[in-house]
Design a protein that fits this description.
single chain, mainly alpha
Protein backbone atom coordinates (compact mmCIF):
# COMPACT_ATOMS: atom_id res chain seq x y z
CA UNK A 1 0.00 0.00 0.00
CA UNK A 2 2.92 2.35 0.59
CA UNK A 3 4.05 2.09 -3.02
CA UNK A 4 0.60 3.10 -4.31
CA UNK A 5 0.54 6.12 -1.97
CA UNK A 6 4.02 7.23 -3.09
CA UNK A 7 3.07 6.89 -6.77
CA UNK A 8 -0.15 8.85 -6.21
CA UNK A 9 1.76 11.66 -4.49
CA UNK A 10 4.36 11.74 -7.26
CA UNK A 11 1.68 11.92 -9.95
CA UNK A 12 -0.19 14.71 -8.13
CA UNK A 13 2.91 16.82 -7.40
CA UNK A 14 3.37 19.71 -9.82
CA UNK A 15 6.47 19.47 -11.94
CA UNK A 16 8.96 22.31 -12.21
CA UNK A 17 8.74 24.39 -15.39
CA UNK A 18 11.23 23.69 -18.13
CA UNK A 19 13.53 26.72 -18.00
CA UNK A 20 15.36 25.80 -21.22
CA UNK A 21 12.04 25.62 -23.02
CA UNK A 22 11.08 29.01 -21.60
CA UNK A 23 14.39 30.45 -22.80
CA UNK A 24 13.84 29.05 -26.29
CA UNK A 25 10.32 30.48 -26.37
CA UNK A 26 11.65 33.85 -25.20
CA UNK A 27 14.06 33.81 -28.13
CA UNK A 28 11.20 32.90 -30.47
CA UNK A 29 9.11 35.77 -29.12
CA UNK A 30 12.01 38.21 -29.57
CA UNK A 31 12.54 37.03 -33.16
CA UNK A 32 8.83 37.49 -33.86
CA UNK A 33 8.94 40.95 -32.33
CA UNK A 34 11.91 41.84 -34.53
CA UNK A 35 10.06 40.63 -37.64
CA UNK A 36 6.97 42.64 -36.67
CA UNK A 37 8.88 45.86 -36.03
CA UNK A 38 10.93 45.31 -39.21
CA UNK A 39 7.77 44.99 -41.29
CA UNK A 40 6.44 48.21 -39.75
CA UNK A 41 9.76 49.89 -40.60
CA UNK A 42 9.40 48.69 -44.19
CA UNK A 43 6.00 50.37 -44.29
CA UNK A 44 7.46 53.60 -42.93
CA UNK A 45 10.45 53.68 -45.25
CA UNK A 46 8.70 52.71 -48.48
CA UNK A 47 5.66 54.92 -48.01
CA UNK A 48 4.09 54.45 -51.42
CA UNK A 49 6.94 53.10 -53.55
CA UNK A 50 5.00 53.19 -56.83
CA UNK A 51 4.01 56.19 -58.93
CA UNK A 52 0.37 56.13 -57.77
CA UNK A 53 1.41 56.12 -54.10
CA UNK A 54 0.53 52.50 -53.37
CA UNK A 55 2.82 49.72 -52.22
CA UNK A 56 4.19 47.39 -54.87
CA UNK A 57 3.07 43.75 -54.77
CA UNK A 58 6.59 42.63 -53.87
CA UNK A 59 6.72 44.93 -50.85
CA UNK A 60 3.25 43.89 -49.74
CA UNK A 61 4.31 40.24 -49.99
CA UNK A 62 7.49 40.94 -48.02
CA UNK A 63 5.62 42.73 -45.24
CA UNK A 64 2.85 40.15 -45.14
CA UNK A 65 5.27 37.24 -44.96
CA UNK A 66 7.12 38.84 -42.04
CA UNK A 67 3.88 39.39 -40.15
CA UNK A 68 2.66 35.85 -40.92
CA UNK A 69 5.95 34.34 -39.76
CA UNK A 70 5.79 36.40 -36.57
CA UNK A 71 2.23 35.26 -35.88
CA UNK A 72 3.10 31.60 -36.46
CA UNK A 73 6.14 31.90 -34.20
CA UNK A 74 4.22 33.54 -31.36
CA UNK A 75 1.40 31.01 -31.52
CA UNK A 76 3.83 28.07 -31.59
CA UNK A 77 5.91 29.43 -28.71
CA UNK A 78 2.74 30.14 -26.75
CA UNK A 79 1.54 26.58 -27.30
CA UNK A 80 4.87 25.20 -26.10
CA UNK A 81 4.70 27.30 -22.95
CA UNK A 82 1.07 26.33 -22.36
CA UNK A 83 1.78 22.62 -22.82
CA UNK A 84 4.66 22.97 -20.38
CA UNK A 85 2.28 24.77 -17.97
CA UNK A 86 4.72 27.66 -17.69
CA UNK A 87 2.00 30.27 -17.23
CA UNK A 88 4.30 32.94 -15.85
CA UNK A 89 6.56 32.91 -18.92
CA UNK A 90 3.57 32.73 -21.27
CA UNK A 91 1.88 35.69 -19.61
CA UNK A 92 5.03 37.80 -19.30
CA UNK A 93 6.21 37.20 -22.88
CA UNK A 94 2.76 37.81 -24.34
CA UNK A 95 2.32 41.07 -22.42
CA UNK A 96 5.75 42.32 -23.50
CA UNK A 97 5.15 41.29 -27.13
CA UNK A 98 1.75 42.96 -27.31
CA UNK A 99 3.03 46.10 -25.56
CA UNK A 100 6.06 46.57 -27.82
CA UNK A 101 4.18 45.68 -31.01
CA UNK A 102 1.45 48.12 -29.94
CA UNK A 103 4.02 50.89 -29.46
CA UNK A 104 5.43 50.17 -32.92
CA UNK A 105 1.94 50.19 -34.43
CA UNK A 106 1.19 53.51 -32.71
CA UNK A 107 4.36 55.01 -34.17
CA UNK A 108 3.36 53.72 -37.61
CA UNK A 109 -0.16 55.17 -37.38
CA UNK A 110 1.06 58.53 -36.04
CA UNK A 111 3.69 58.78 -38.77
CA UNK A 112 1.14 58.07 -41.48
CA UNK A 113 -1.33 60.57 -40.00
CA UNK A 114 1.40 63.20 -39.73
CA UNK A 115 2.47 62.56 -43.30
CA UNK A 116 -1.12 62.77 -44.56
CA UNK A 117 -1.64 66.05 -42.69
CA UNK A 118 1.61 67.44 -44.10
CA UNK A 119 0.55 66.40 -47.60
CA UNK A 120 -2.80 68.15 -47.16
CA UNK A 121 -1.06 71.34 -46.06
CA UNK A 122 1.27 71.20 -49.07
CA UNK A 123 -1.74 70.62 -51.34
CA UNK A 124 -3.51 73.66 -49.89
CA UNK A 125 -0.37 75.75 -50.34
CA UNK A 126 -0.04 74.69 -53.97
CA UNK A 127 -3.70 75.54 -54.62
CA UNK A 128 -3.37 79.02 -53.12
CA UNK A 129 -0.06 79.71 -54.83
CA UNK A 130 -1.35 78.84 -58.30
CA UNK A 131 -4.68 80.65 -57.99
Amino acid sequence: MDIVAVLAEAAAAPKAPNLWGALGCALAYSGALFATVDSFADLLLADGDTADGRLSPALRLKIGSKLAAAAITVVAAGLVLALDANWFALTALTIVFVLLAGIAATVLVRHRAHRAAAGAVVGEYDATASG
